[in-house]
């Protein structure tokens, strides 16, 4: 089982989530728009729940495994 990404914050700004995931801000917003990375809005600010990072990484691993099996 993989270790969850650790952070003290429960909600992360998209820029901070992108840094933790090792991807760019634009790609992070694209994944949110596609529904692959969960997010919430608080006022006008888009935030990513910390546990959504682990879910997204698990999705990527799953997709990678499916692609390798094909």
Summarize the structure.
The protein is of the alpha+beta class. The protein has three helices and three strands; from the N terminus they run βααββα.
Features:
alpha+beta; globular
Estimate the helix proportion, in percent.
40-55%
The helix count comes to: 3
Order of helices and strands: EHHEEH
Gap between N and C termini: 23 Å
Can you count the beta strands? Answer: 3
Q: What structural category do the secondary elements indicate?
A: alpha+beta
For the biggest β-sheet, the strand order reads: 1-3-2
Can you give the mean pLDDT?
92
Low-confidence stretches: none
Main β-sheet: number of strands, strand sense, barrel status?
A: 3 strands, antiparallel
Descriptive account of the structure:
With 70 residues, the protein is α+β, with helices and mostly antiparallel strands. Helix content is 53%, strand content 16%. It is built from three helices and three strands; from the N terminus they run βααββα. The chain has helices at 14-21, 25-33, 50-69; strands spanning 11-13, 40-42, 45-49. It is globular, with a radius of gyration of 13 Å.
Task: Give the helices and strands, then pairings.
Layout: E1 11-13, H1 14-21, H2 25-33, E2 40-42, E3 45-49, H3 50-69
Helix pairs in contact: 1-2
